[in-house]
Fold DUF3332 domain-containing protein.
Amino acid sequence: MKSKAIKIAVVTALGVSSLTGCMGQMATTGLVGKFNLEIVDNRYGREGMFLLLSPVYAIASFADLFIFNAVEFWTGTNPLSGKSPAVVDTPADAILKVNDKLDSSMTEVPLSYNGDVKSATMQQIDENTMQMDISYLDGSHKLLRGEKGEDSVAFYLNDEYITTVSNEELVNYVQTALLRNSNGK
C-alpha cells in the first residue's frame, strides 16, 4: 500500500513538473550533441558515437525536460546556456491565439519583477568594463559589472562572479529584445 502511494506521488510530481518544463532550449541535450559532433569528423563515426551515447542522450533529455527547462520557464533564462528569453517567451507568429484578453501581469516572467528598483546608473570604467549601480527602494545598493574578454563578457555582482556570456549570445539577446520592442511587447 505504501509503495503504491509513493509511485502515485512520483508520477504526479513528474507530471506536474513536465507541465512547465517541456518547452525549453534543451541545453543539456545540445551539449551532448555538440560533444558528439566535435569528437568525430565524419558522418559514419558520428552516427556510431550517437548510438554509443544514446543512454547519455536519454539522461540529458530527462534532465532538460524535468529540471532545466522548468527552471528556464520560471526564471526566463536557461541555467546552463544562460540564454534568455525563455523559449516560451520568444515572440513568434502564433497560429492559434489562446487568449488575447490576458491581463498584462500574466505576460511577463514571474521572477523577473524589478518594481523594487529605485534607480540604476551606468558608467564606463575603461574600454573593457561597464558598471551599473543599482539602488533599491529599501535603501540597499548592488553593483553589477561586465568585463569584456576576447569573445565573451564576464559578469560580477558586488565583486562576486556570476557568469560568462559569449558575444554571440549577447547579440542574440539584443536582437530578441529589439524584436520584442518592435512588436509592442
The first strand starts at residue 117 and ends at 126. The CA atoms of residues 134 and 142 lie 5 Å apart. The beta strands are 117-126, 129-136, 141-148, 152-157, 160-166. The two ends are 51 Å apart (CA to CA).
